[in-house]
Amino acid sequence: MKWIKISLKTTTEAVDFISSLFDELGLEGIQIEDNVPLSQEDKEAMYIDILPELPEDEGEATVTSYVSPEKDIEELKREITEGLEEISFFVNVGEGTITTEETDDGDWINNWKAFFKPFRVAEDIVIKPTWETLEDKKEDDLVIEIDPGTAFGTGAHETTRLCITGLRKYITKETKLLDVGCGSGILSIIGLKLGARAAVGTDIDPAALTATYENMEVNHISKEQFTAYSGNIIEDKELQEKVGFEKYDIVVANILADVIIPLSGEIRQHMKKDGLFISSGIIDMKKEEVEAALLKNGFQIVEINTMGDWVSFVAK
Fold first, then answer.
1. Is 232 annotated as ligand-binding?
2. What domains are defined for the chain?
3. pLDDT one-digit tens code per residue, 127-138
4. Which positions bind S-adenosyl-L-methionine (predicted)?
């Protein structure tokens, strides 16, 4: 489907006013581009380890949205201009330039799929996108089909590979697995395919659960083997109850260091005695902080594995 991208160049101080104007005019999915530095609070809310390096903030911003080509674009531009005139009585709106261009939803929804091809995550484990054909298959290959949708988790990233290495080493046919931040469900699927008897996944993003259940079905994982819940297990007491206590032989979390640190203080109550906590998504500069948190919260470090700039802990 074709869309019209409409962008308004303005000032950072006018962004909230203009976002409200766009909303009043029925424009949804508003995008804001600026160079305002992220605060520590922003960083924690967005779950990012490294703050991006931005150009100097000169107070400029661009507010963008997308509308159907059936919309009267000239009329819309006129309404935006009138709204800007009103807003200008209260705040500096800057140059107020409005630009439009035609785009295609495929530009941001499907184009990435052209770069996601089947690959080996281990000698005998192959990750295959659901829309691709696997040509290089060995007799004993374990083939995992994945469509991540809008969730994180194709299996290609070093952090996911580190988790897979840990799962492959420690999973047995008696393993009950808890996958915190399950994303596309890839680690739960691999865990179950490696022989785990059951798995439970959690993710703060509801879209992740949709992707996970779809991928479970594609990989012939039954509903009896897997359950997923939406929410933040660190803070959500109701979710903690649903997940259950002292139940899991292995917990795997491929998230970020700043999430794993508080998670290490909460997750023990869900684990069996001598259970293993496999964590990854840890940039190397955060290694010592995560290790200190694990030790402080009663874990014994069993292994530390690295790949590129990323670190994974196996803790007991």
1. no
2. 2-110 (3.30.70.120), 116-315 (3.40.50.150)
3. 877 777 777 777
4. 160, 181, 203, 254
